[in-house]
Design goal:
Layout (H helix, E strand, L loop, with lengths): L1 E4 L3 H17 L5 E7 L8 E7 L2 E7 L4 H20 L16 H20 L11
Parallel strand pairs: 1-2, 2-4
Antiparallel strand pairs: 3-4
Helix pairs in contact: 1-2, 2-3
């Protein structure tokens, strides 16, 4: 189940669609709460937190442009997959440089492809906001 809090109607519509696409692609079926937050003073674009087995919370900076917001969501959904597979815990990478963490390398590498394939599947790739 996907639950959305906050955001515009457009942000919510596309976030649900992308989340369902990515989770189906990864063949996982967790409960995910997606929150669009102000995050004004936070340099990060999003966070993924494991709440319980099979339950996750994703916080996204609501002021991002739509493509950047959805790419960030794809990134955080890769972390959901990693939690589900047991390859990521909230403490297993302490002390490593952020960009050297295997979980971040995978999430950063996969986010654009997930977004692009979702946009193509939903016949959105011709729209200006889906372009770089």
């Amino acid at each position: 189940m996907i639950v959305i809090n906050g955001g515009t109607s457009s942000q919510r519509k596309y976030a649900v669609s992308l989340a369902l696409y990515v989770l189906d692609k990864f063949e996982v079926n967790p409960d995910v709460e997606i929150n669009f937050r102000r995050m004004t003073d936070d340099p990060n674009f999003g966070y993924c937190t494991e709440l319980d087995d099979g339950e996750y919370e994703i916080d996204l900076k609501r002021s991002l442009k739509l493509r950047e917001l959805l790419c960030t969501l794809a990134h955080e959904l890769v972390h959901v997959k990693q939690y589900e597979e047991g390859t990521l815990t909230q403490t297993n990478e302490e002390g490593m440089d952020y960009w050297d963490k295997p979980s971040e390398i995978e999430a950063t590498g996969r986010e654009p492809g997930l977004f692009i394939r979702w946009a193509e599947k939903n016949e959105l790739s011709h729209l200006a906001w889906t372009q770089r």
